[in-house]
């Protein structure tokens, strides 16, 4: 906007100049900061009350697990964690159970289970082929793991795919590599003796020449279902036995299947997943035992074959029965819930972030031998890799087997007391729960981004944490990040070796002038292994710093024949017209150009880039030594000047956006305003037939 004859008028609005007038006991012009927020109670205080100055963010509970939304809400949720327990004690954050190496086998672990046979319970671990070319099935007894099938399993079998108790016998499944495979389905005593091979009987029941692999099984005390494959073809089928294996009956057969990775018997219905060989489809089907009907429930479309996604093992627990619902794991992205009463299907979780781990972390998105074995039921919860579902909420759990690496885990089986885990980078290792996670840096919880109104900057002041008294070896570390969790800065810590074991709260202060729009918080817990620090509550004091705007109260002269500032020029518009121009602006709620009493302007001398911090102009003569510039829609602050340059420039000031500007563009100290209040008065002793008005305006910067 062009200068409205600064030698004639005090200020201008739009294209009209005006003179200020002082009233008795009043002022002609007054400038204040425009309100940045009203009553905290009126606008909502999130239950933390006003406390006069600081705003507060607080969280005292994490029992609702993790969430996908980034912005913080006080909803007992967090963004993600690793090796942190937020579910075993209400309102407490503790270290998850640690691990101890239970055993290293001579081949990769392919399955595991805990079975009760004839009143005795034993853990079993199946593996791939060892040095002699034969797979292994180990039983834990008398303090050690012993291979119980070395004498009879053939080297045509590639791996043990599952083992389950039925009719007080152990049924063992294997997958072979040649057409003349034997021992695909074997019954034996608990110690592997007195084995009976049912492979031929099952092939006869299916009407096949051979069965070369058994991939999954399920059942109860009365019936056993086994999914089998014919080598060299796309044939998969399900057989059943209602006795101890003497008689087998075909249930269903598929000629274009790639796998039947999982089955689950619930009441009178057999639920199972089947991969279609030539389409990236995983079907959920139901076979009714009463009327022998086989129906399709739904199809899940995937980008990779199930075999690639779940690995070579058939011990893939992709179906679980929890709280009356069927929970379905679709490798490697989704978890679904099927309501057995209503028949409704809903998606519980979709992989969209590294925090969601239902399988391998390495190669997570490529599908390269992901070896996702699904989850296990333990303490009425479903456990996957670094993921647990309690029927309502999802929680992050374990991440690392070896705390010095990022060695991911997968649950193999539970004995009702402990979970046994397989290493995801060294498949020969078996771990079990023991004590608590230790002192490395991978035991942390990340809070949701604290950004109520994420575009407004905030002054971060302090954080207070409440915790149980520490014991030797325990430490709580608090960190923050302003770059979307790329780097973290330690704010402070509580350390038994420094703070002792008597305090239960500590305050950490941010460095002075810690200002940003968004903040991530992370808490690390460290312990000695036998115990865990326990964090209870955390609260943060901060102050929103919106871009400050100004408001003006002006008293303007609107007289007929008004003499302007040079003492000789008359205003060409009558007083009533001057007044009505202002009133019309007020009525129409228009945004106007405003030249205040200190208005200055010049032109750019050369094009300006969006990153330049020195601005060259025709002249800086009218401008103060430091201040504010407006170029088109961008505002810029500067800290110094020469005759033709502004120096120390900070671009995109006060919420504007830095951009490039062409040569000869106007550079000014003008404002955009809106009239928020209008009042007019007539002075005492007004002359007849002469328009004399005093107009009081309130302007607000926009």
How would you characterize the overall build of this protein?
With 702 residues, the protein is mainly beta. It folds into four domains: 1-36 and 547-595 and 679-702, no CATH class; 42-96 and 442-545, Jelly Rolls (Sandwich), CATH 2.60.120.260; 97-436, YVTN repeat-like/Quinoprotein amine dehydrogenase (Methylamine Dehydrogenase, Chain H, 7 Propeller); 600-669. The chain is 5% helix and 44% strand. Strands 1-2-44-54-53-45 form a six-stranded antiparallel barrel. A hairpin with a 2-residue loop joins β30 and β31. The protein is elongated, with a radius of gyration of 38 Å. The model is unreliable at 38-44, 305-315 and 359-371 (pLDDT under 50).
Entry summary:
This protein has 702 residues and is mainly β.
What would you say the CATH architecture of the largest domain is?
A: 7 Propeller
Largest sheet: 6 strands, antiparallel, barrel
- Low-pLDDT parts are 38-44, 305-315, 359-371
Whole-Å distance between the termini? 16 Å
CATH superfamily of the largest domain: YVTN repeat-like/Quinoprotein amine dehydrogenase
CATH class wording of the largest domain: Mainly Beta
Q: Total number of β-strand segments?
A: 54
Q: Label the overall shape.
A: elongated
Strand order in the largest sheet? 1-2-44-54-53-45
CATH topology of the largest domain: Methylamine Dehydrogenase, Chain H
On the 0 to 100 scale, the average pLDDT is 88
Q: How many domains, as an integer?
A: 4
- Content of β-strand: 35-45%
Helix content: under 10%
Which structural class do you get from the secondary structure elements?
mainly beta
Rg (C-alpha, Å): 38 Å
> Total helix count?
5
